[in-house]
Amino acid sequence: MFHHFFHPLAFFMHVVGIALVVVAAVMFLGARRGFARHRCGAGRESYPRRDTDNSAFEDYRRATITRLEKEAEEFRSYLDGLRRAADASAFQAFLRARKSGESSAS
């Protein structure tokens, strides 16, 4: 039944087949990892910068990037203001609850 495993050539072919499967899996996973790294990079610095020969497009691209960075900064400061307002509201509610708890305990 298992006599072909003991034949040297058959055993060698099994080992080669398993090695090929392992190599293919490593190559596939490595390619997927590289693809994910490229697609999920942290910001635009993860992508290679390619200047074009079109100066009008480059001017438009620079202006758009500058505008988007400014809008992103404004949005971050808006969110920071919202967080501060929520924190202040929660703190005021805590102080009112504490004050009402002290007055009822007295």
TrEMBL record:
Segments passing through the bilayer: 6-29
Pfam family, one: DUF2852
Keyword Transmembrane helix among record annotations: yes
Keywords attached to this entry: Membrane, Transmembrane, Transmembrane helix
InterPro entries in the record: DUF2852
Membrane found in the keyword field: yes
Protein name: DUF2852 domain-containing protein
Species per Swiss-Prot/TrEMBL record: Hyphomicrobium facile
